[in-house]
Amino acid sequence: MANVAWRSLCQQVPARTGFVGFSTAAAAFVDSSPVEVKIHLNKPPIPTPFPMPTPSSITAAPQTQPFPSLLITSSSLTPMGTFAEAQATFINPCSSSVASLDSLLASANMGVVAHYYMDVELQGVLSALSYPHVFIADSLAMGDAAVKMCEAGCTSVAVLGVDFMAESVRAIMGKSGFSHIPVYRSVEKAIGCSLAESAEKVCEKYKFFYYSQLH
């Protein structure tokens, strides 16, 4: 009997009343003395529209740094802002660093392949070198460029990028007949890549699923 009364009460609550109507019906059921329950619901208040800001009420946030830009004149290049400073370093790299690296690479007969993600300051120095065997590109083109450097007579290749890029360059060089030429990374510690690590996890997951289906 109680279940029948509970269902009857719930059916009397309009869907639009939501939690308010349900609570009212529940309170009436707890009392349970009357057979017929009448629920009087007040209309919900009309929400007040959000006031639109007026031009006089809008205040601009204080600008702590200048908008990143380069002020170029006939005799100077002036960066405005920290981001622009990095770009200015790319356009006008340190001349002593360029001369030193030019000499070192020529004496070592080493090719250099670098990824686009390397620091802009480093890319600026590499782009200013007169040494011919330097290439900045994406990971796939790095391997092809390394092969061309080997064909031109380079006795070693330095890879400036994450670990899988060095591994890719090594594999492409080996497939092209240059497995005897050493490939160097920029640092000894591991340099990971979140995209490559995610792909490895997906491969391991499907490999486990494949072997589990076989056995």
Structural notes for this entry:
This protein is an alpha/beta fold. Among the domains are: 44 residues, no CATH class; 102 residues, 3-Layer(aba) Sandwich (Rossmann fold). It is 48% helix and 12% strand. The chain contains eight helices and six strands; from the N terminus they run H-H-E-E-H-H-E-H-E-H-E-H-E-H. The strands form two sheets. It has a four-stranded parallel beta sheet, with helices on both faces. Helix 5 links the parallel strand 3 and strand 4. The longest helix has 21 residues. The two termini are 57 Å apart. The N terminus is likely disordered.
Primary descriptors:
alpha/beta, flat, disordered N terminus, Rossmann fold, 8 helices, two-stranded antiparallel sheet, 215 residues, four-stranded parallel sheet, single chain
Concise summary:
By secondary structure, the protein is of the alpha/beta class. Helices cover 48% and strands 12% of the residues.
